[in-house]
## 1
Amino acid sequence: MSAATKPSILRAEHLGRTVGDKILVHDADFELQKGEVLAITGSSGSGKTSLLRLLNRLDEPTSGTVFVEGTDYRNLSPRELRRKLGMVTQRPYLFPGSVADNLRFGPAQRGETLPPETIAELLVQVGLKDYGGRDVAHLSGGEAQRVSVARTLANSPLALLLDEPTSALDEAAKLEVEAAIQKVMRDQELTCVMVTHDVAQAIRLADRALVVEQGRIVRAGPVEEVLRA
Amino acid sequence: MLKLLFPSQLQLGLAQALVAAAAGLAVVLLARRRGIHLEGETSIAMLRGLVQIIAVGSILVILLRAPRWTGGLALLGMIVAAGATSARRAKGMPEAFRISAWAIAFGAGSIIALMTSLGVIDTAITSLVPVGSMLIANAMNTNGLALNRFRSDVLAHAGEIETALALGAESRNSVSPYVQASFEASLIPAIDSLRSLGIVWIPGLMAGMLLSGARPVYAAIYQFVVLAMIFAASGLTSLVSTMLIRSRVFSPAEQLLLQPGK
């Protein structure tokens, strides 16, 4: 199936947010089909993270909206929306307890118990086989971020929203996390929006790219075309 | 020494107030040397406290001759003032005054009403107003501590809270560890007061009762009664305020409104 005929997972329409007289995001329009990976790049403070937060409705848009599988996300409960659009933040913010406890967190919010075999599968996907019983206090930065990715996947999201998931890591840990993300995207054909200031990483992982400046999308298109320009 | 210099009781009182205030201001100056600036807030608080207590002392003289219902009115006024004072400890939190006033009204008000109806607090204005004001003042302090701690915790843990929200947690569940910590921390002074009663401190009310001729054992027991009532009123106030505030820090779309830098 070509990208054009694949179902639409996410569509931002005139999406914007202004706080006081500060424009954080202005009139963002883009669409993602199933399995597509979109990189959002730009300099610090350009509005990349603000745009990602609007997609997950952690902040309220002041204009426009987002359609998730064709449904205006204002018609979805915020909890259901956030389960569907799983977010991985720059810092992993693991909850105290074991790795398995963290993976169980999302499903437990809906009264579901994550089976041990699913926990084991998720940990294999992110390269942390047999880590389930480990205390999160003893994980390295890269391991913690991979647990964060697995914890988000435990909610079976439609799409992943990644907010500079490797920017706080050293080079070795960055490559580990990037490899885990790449494997998940490939194996699950997962739709993904990734904020990054790392152009090389965007080219390695994404199909398309948006460049944001002062809250506005100034370039959009195939990743190589946009970022090598 | 002051007694020799100021034969009149009013002059003596003002001189004693000046000396005590000077000790407080000396501490403020010491803090200033360490870069902690409390000058403005402390000076205003001291001046306000002195003016207010003199005003209340004057009003009490009138109240003593007034009908009993005026005591309830005076307590209501105290609750509103207490709500406004403790709400200042929750800067930036939505509806802090309304929540504080309701929490203190419910926490202190219900304990005062219950204890008055059971005869633990005498309905005479001379008893109702001073004892009631103690419960309200302590509820105010507890409420201020609870809101201040909750605000600090939410600001310090905004990342964890939003992570829980992003994983589909209910907003109230995402802040429940901070609600619990705020409640526990706010009750530390009330619990420590109960624990140290008679050993570390003897409340002024007991001295007053002894001076007015009460039996020492009854005066001592009544101190426990007052502190237990303070604990109940403070605990109830903190329970209500932390329960009310946890939903106010989120928008209807479960977005965290209280964020660092906002």
## 2
Amino acid sequence: MTKPKVASDWLAGCAGCHMSFLDMDERIIELTKLVDLRSTPITDLKEPDEDGVDVGILEGGITNTYNEEVAIKMRERCKILVALGDCAVFGGVPAMRNFPGATAALRRAYIETESTDESGMIPNDPELSFPVHVRPVSDVVKVDISLPGCAPSADAIFYVLSELAQGRMPKVDGEFNDWH
Amino acid sequence: MIQLTINGQPVEVETGATILDAVRKAGFNVPTLCYHPKLVSYGSCRLCLVEVEGARTLQPSCVVPANNGMVVHTDTDKTKSARKFILSMLFSERNHFCMYCQDTDGDCELQQAAYDEDMTHWPITPAYKPFLVDASHPDFILDNNRCILCRRCVRACTELVGNATLGFEERGSGSILIADNNVPLGESTCISCGTCVQVCPTGALIDRRSAYQGRETDLTHVDSVCMDCSLGCERVVKTRDNRLVRIDGNLEHGFNESLLCSDGRYKPVSETRKRVTTPMVRRNGQLEPISWDEALSAISAQFKAHDSSEISAHISPRQPVEALSAFHEFFADHFKAGQVALLGHDQTALASVKLAAEIGAFESEISVLKDCDAAIVLGVDMVKDHQVAGFFMKRQAMQDLKLFIANSTSTSLGEWSSNKIDYIGTDYPAVVSLLRGFAKGETANLTEKLQQLGLNPAHAEKVLGQLKESQKPVIVVGNEFARLDNLQAFRDLVLLAREIGAKVVTLKGKGNNFAGGLLGYEMDAQAKTAPVFYLALGDGHACEHTLEAMSGSEFKIVQSSYISEITDAADIVLPCTIWAEQAGHYLTSEGKFGLNQQAIQAADGNKSVLDVLEVLAGKSGLTIAETWRDSVQEKVAAVVLS
């Protein structure tokens, strides 16, 4: 049996969920015996294989058009999509921006900051992606497994991945369902 | 009794019980949010929906009465899907992001309800509509963005506290919690009792001091009793790492039904006075640190150098019965000190004890206030003092309570009652004589008598008539009325109570005043200057007259937790533990012992009043007896009816 391929990426998050993934320590070696770890934001390969992977993992919420593209690409290339952490599942801390609105948040950050003088301006380079209403991944693409937590524990991540690696659908409940 | 079946299991409940009562009695559980055991059920959140065979729709179990023969199912696909849907809707309405909420990880009932349904995400995207945050109150913050509109706070404010400050404005999902007619909480009629904060199931009402200090499970819970006034409300002191974090009412037991006032809940955790850290002695006009041994030897030498009548000993009623008993034994029994007094001027306890010795036990327990239909309140403003007892009266006032209030200042106690007489003055003998005469049917010169008291005769006569017709009258007396120099009026009042079948409740001032009265203390309103002045102040405050009497003394010994003008004037200062650092009993107004358990450890160098007394007694070759309980208990029975 070939090992299932796993790819991950991060959107608008703090990288904390990936740090929590690394927190599983030596179990990563066990895990790599079970799965073929493909692209991740912390390894050389950055994009999931064009011919697809079995499991895609996304950390972070959708805050701009680039996040949308990444989420859509991951969804197209994976069979099972895992939303990892509170930002991917609910929108998380970046979603606080939705209460005042993106424009007000950008003004506060780039123009009204106490240390900014009158030359302050909101970045407007055409290369930059466009900020959107912050949403969970599931508002953009279909999510198969939600693993909430800020961050989800290494145990919870190991449980979900090892279940998937062995061809079972993990049930996130009990101590593993911790929204924080 | 009603018989019904829950999930196939037969169960029997009292008539009037709800389906929820039956479900819990049968050993099952249904999640709830707006339901609270201390409040009238409301049925607004719908989380407790159950399937009742034959019913057209799912039924809210917290409000639907159990009926004979009902067949109820709590965990069907239908109920589970309804619960998930309700929770999805709740999460979609406002800011319920757990990761930046104070109330999380097991403390939030909304979050817990979601966990119980194994929800891993929100099926409906939130609306992100911002709502009002009111941070104007010194003790708590109201964040409408976290509110689920369960109205527990509103119901608690009205049903439990009788204050009716909180209410809702707007309708449906736009409803917002407001104070009064939408004024900032800090400027409202809120009395800062904190009951709303304690019953809030989410992070909508946030306690300022304990916010982000840890989850309930991180805190150590210690059952305790409040010693601020003589009611002795039961409370739970919550600590972490030897630090006071929060005080809550005790939901499990206590006459106070989990209620506390701001003095019981917030005052002890907002202490700003500076602690005394070491024993100090006055040398060349300045207080200088010395060792405990030196300090205690110096005190002992003073006691030996003076005739016992030259000692004046004063103790705070915030001290436990153990300390009061030992203090009295040491200074009054062994030393025959010139004065052995309790700080304060409230003579209610002393007057009650004296009167009961003459005419027998006459007092009833505080709980009679909870279902009285008429009340005569003499000489106490229950809105300011003994507030929790005042809550009971205020809620009765909302239920058509007939009220006669006599006090030197006006009170808002009866603001909800339309049948009330407010006598503002202090001619208590005239008031008692009027009431007693009216009860006996003596109506001669009634109009004049009422006019003399400054009352509207027509209205007063109507209310007096209603008072006379009442079924469960109570008489509440306090500080201004129950005085040793007013004992005749007090005696007449008790006779009136016996004649009309009214229950008498006396509110006995501060902490352990009742125990002090029974142990034979006098109040220190006429504090006497003596060559040696011993003041066991503890964490209390002393009045001006105590300071004045003390300042005339040659040698002033003060046991105090905090630095104040009292310690500044002392010759020897002994650092003393505060209430939370010592254990001890408090005798409540109604004559029951409450135990204040030690919640935190004192810093090295602090000793309790009792510890110091034991050492001083040892230096005088005495041992302090520990047999106070039975004798106090016996004396209580002579005052309070069993």
